[in-house]
Amino acid sequence: MRIEKITNENLNTILENLLKRSPNNYGDYEDVVKGILEEVKKRGDEALFEYTKKFDGAFITEENILVSEEEIEQAYRNIDDDLLWVIRKSLKNIKSFHEKQKQRSWIDTHDNGVMLGQKVTPLNRVGVYVPGGKAVYPSSVLMNIVPAKVAGVDEIIMVTPPEKDNSINSTTLVAAREAGVSKIYKVGGAQGIAALAYGTKSVPKVDKITGPGNIYVALAKRAVYGHVSIDSIAGPSEILILADESANPKFVAADLLSQAEHDELASAILVTSSIELAKQVSDWVSEYTSALPRKEIIEKSIENYGYILVTDSLEESIGVANEIASEHLEIMTKEPYEVMTKIRNAGAIFIGEYSSEPLGDYYAGPNHVLPTNGTAKFFSPLSVDDFIKKSSLISYSKEALFEAADDIMKFATAEELSAHAHSIRVRLEEEGR
User: Fold this and answer.
1) Taking the alpha carbons of 102, 105, 110, 114 in that order, is the dihedral positive or negative?
2) Active site residue 303
């Protein structure tokens, strides 16, 4: 891995390089995505089935687009019992974590007849997108469905691209059923997002779409925002490890590669004040990479978006980490909890050398759908909050309104909104005031 002494100039260059991976910079694909969305919006199922045949090679119809109970039962027969047990343990951890995020409605009353509050309501129907293709992501199935289920969403619709034989991966189906999905449809890509956003004869329209996908899915989600809500525009995976001289270079190297293997656009960065650690990690990255099955992907990822950044101090390292605002941040220092208190920008923070990033991907419980491309400066992980909406509650007695009437009318008059003032005044006049 390249080792660089950090400066303001090269930090800005690195940030610009990382941002090139953002879906916002893939304008060449936008026209294609726009065309797909328009066709599905206009022709519904007809376009949906055509695109599924074109892109996935599957012959999907109104009769087989919905995954049947028989297919789910067969999936349970296909899946390894040990894997099913692991899915259930992971599901328990994820559910337990998200249960603590639940919000409840509240009301605050006052002696003068004023009642104020907030009503928390789950979304009615949400859509979860699950990628298909080269890899299988049952963990993403759990991470998207469980918080929606905990929030109390009435109907959870999942879409995922089918194989050429019209099948869906058994592990994906089992994870979805275990998590509490309502229905699963065999459709993916931009056309799947369009179906969820606009609705077709076969696929119902949803209120919100969550879940990761390729560039076409990401751009489609961005384009339909407004017709529906979305979680975020997810970019390629990324990890930043903040370490000092006490860190184990083998652990650091292994964890960097755990993200670099995702795809060629993944980013893996070490920030450290120890040049000795930097050199050791670089050596171990080379050694581990040569023996890993996804060697070619890792090498391209490291070449384009892998960095070892050397600083003058731990405080400077913390500043660099906050500026990059990585999706995953591991802290491997002598006092990791003290460092954690100084981190402002990160999607998920892994504290200590035995809290490796795959814990968050699969098992610990916190959601692994995280802000990428520096958006951890203002976005949060997917949570129960993403599947609820809040309504304000306001109730004033006659006496309470009359007490505030003059103040309200003065505000309305200052804004030259006479009908606002009249709305209050007519009530005063009704009482002869």
Assistant:
1) positive
2) no
Q: Decide which of 3.90.180.10, 3.10.290.10, 3.40.50.1980, 3.90.550.10 is the CATH code for 3-22+235-365.
A: 3.40.50.1980
CATH code, 25-230: 3.40.50.1980
Least confidently predicted of 20-34, 165-179, 262-276, 395-409? 20-34
Which pLDDT tens digit goes with each residue over 185-206?
999 999 999 999 999 999 999 9
Concerning whether 327 is annotated as a catalytic residue, the answer is yes
> Residue 371 in contact with residue 381, Cβ under 8 Å?
yes
- Please say if the pLDDT value at position 23 is more than 90: no
**Binding-site residue positions:** 129, 191, 214, 237, 259, 262, 328, 361, 415, 420
pTM of the model: 0.91
- Residue count (the chain): 433
pLDDT, tens digit, 9 for 90 and up, residues 11-22: 888 888 777 776
The binding site for NAD(+) comprises 129, 191, 214
CA max distance for the chain: 88
Task: Enumerate the domain spans of the chain.
Answer: 3-22+235-365, 25-230, 397-430
Closest to 269 in 3D by CA, of 243, 289, 233, 296 = 243
Catalytic option among 328, 330, 353, 368: 328
Write the CA distances from 10 to 6, 260, 274, 309, integer angstroms: 6, 21, 18, 10
The set of residues, in sequence order, having a beta carbon less than 8 Å from that of 36 and lying 6+ positions away, is 47, 51, 189, 190, 191, 194, 216, 220
Query: pLDDT tier at 235 (50, 70, 90 boundaries)?
Result: confident
